[in-house]
Structures are given as structure tokens and as C-alpha cells.
Input
Amino acid sequence: MLDVQIRKKLSHFELDVEFTAHKEIIVLFGHSGSGKTTILNCLAGLEQPDGGRIRLGDNLLFHEGNSLPTQKRKVGYLFQDYALFPHLSVEKNIWYGVPKKERPIKKAVIEQLLDVLGIHHLIGKYPHQISGGEKQRVALARALATEPSLLLLDEPLSALDEETRWQCQEELLRLHQLWNGVPFLIVTHDRKEAEKLGNRILHLDKGKIIDLEK
Output
């Protein structure tokens, strides 16, 4: 269950979503400036709403000024530019968000991610040595390594060429089916992409939902 009612600047955004099946992809669709990334940032704790509440399952992430720290939210985030650390190898990038005390018990999770995403062969490389599609898979592995309750994806395919983008859409759908039932909340301004990926599409304009599809 994701319950969001937030006020931010001039917009008032309300979203009450029950994940009827854990394996669900919800798409926030809208033009640039409609508030999509702001909503993701508020969910992740990177921006502070001006008011309202955010609840994920039994966890109250934000309520009228009281905000749960980002690292305690169990929310993964795949940024638009992937935000990989250039000075770290692929392996160290993937492990980065996992606390050291948890690493011994997370080895099996990381190995499974490497298998599912097909990136075992990349672990010794650095971000500048791999392609855009490979960077996306590494960033996905890093976001899922912490075993989040919700994964946010901000325009995850916008930097890719058309052929790679189509391939990565297929990989996202496959990963979503395989990976532990984690719901995805994806931002895009591409209508065809929204229709292909989303179980439900929320059409956003100026911070408000103006249409709910599927």
C-alpha cells in the first residue's frame, strides 16, 4: 500500500495506491515540469514536502514536517543519469548502499542480481568502460541490492538509443517479474513507453493527477 498526500510549492498531489499484486508497475506519465521527479524525490526523502503525508505499507515516511531519513525508508531509486560513481568498479558500485554489517548475508542476493541482469562479466570494470544499457543494469542492481519495498525509476531509458531502449524495456519487464515482487514506480514522458511498461498509468499535469488509466 502506498498512500501519498503532499503539498509542494503550488501543487497539491494526492495518490492512494494499493498494490493489488506485489508484482505491479505504476507509471507517472506527464510532460516536463508536471511534477513527476519532485514526487519521486519526496518519496525517497531527497526533497521535503511543504505538508501532507507519505505512507508505504506500515511505515510513515513523512507527516507534517516529520520525515523519516532516506536510509530508513526502504525505497530504492534509479536516477535518470544512473549516478554511478566513476571512481568505483561495477562491483563496488553495486555494494555501495549495503551496510557493511549486512554484507555477509547479502552475498546470495547480489549473486542472484548479477545472474538475473547478466552482468557478472562487468564486475571488474568501471562506468566509463561500459555501455549505456550496461550502466542501466548496474544501476538497477545497486538499487535492488538493498532489497527495497518500492523501486523508483526516473526516466530510466531516456538516455538510450531507440534499439537499446526497446531492449531495456523488455529487460525491465522481465526483471520485474523475476525479482521478489518489488513494485516499480516509473516516471516517463513517453506515451508508448508508459503503455508498454505500466499496469496502471497516472497522467500528471502541474502536480495533479488528471487521468488514471488501466
Observations:
- The chain has a mean pLDDT of 85.
